[in-house]
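Sorry to interrupt, but I need a hand with the structure work. Could you write out one complete protein record for me, on any chain you like? Just paste the record in under my message, thanks.

. . .
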Amino acid sequence: MDSTGYGDWIRDFETARRERAGQGDPDWRTGVPLHPAIRRSVQRFQVGEDGDGAELITKAEAAGDAEYASAVRMFVTEERNHARLLALLLASGDAPTIASHWSDRIFVTLRRALGLRLELLVLMIAEVVALRYYRALRDGGEDALTREVAGRVLADEERHVPFHCHRLRRALRPLPAPARVLVTSGWRAALAAACLVVAVDHGPALRRLGVGRGRFAVEVVRSAGPIAAAMR
């Protein structure tokens, strides 16, 4: 990817958009009712994906980089599509979405109270947890439609993490090296704490998906090292 600007990221998002348009939606008629534990878990993740992204877009535009703001709008569009896919997955098994969840309310409140750099650090916590969650749902889902939807969302999330790392690396670059280490170490500690909360909250679903709380938490925490290094 372009080490200075965001032109390559814009082209990457645009390529993904064209691929989605050509691929079309999954066959929702093949949906089956999700196991209750997995249904509750997917409902909570769907709420987390279902923000409008207005605050992030506003902060990106205020940063004064038109290419970055454009890339952020494309990122938000993909996140909204995740919410749509998960909602339709639930609907295909006759399950509703939910209006809110306490974990999402806390997450949104934190993000809105912060500037762009700190908001991205909080957002990256959710993105890294999501990587392992959607991989578990893709690999352990009990029906083909669930696995397909999870795989589509996971493919996007695997691009989102390096995109945000790119921005955070530029944002942290002016700081002295010890300060960058302090910031990323704090981020890793916050990720570990959030991961434990998710592991407990989604424990029944994780067990059903063949992962379990402990393995989920350990793998998320282990993944943080290379990501923190990329931020620095």
Notes: The mean pLDDT is 92. The radius of gyration is 17 Å. The chain is about 80% helix and 0% strand.
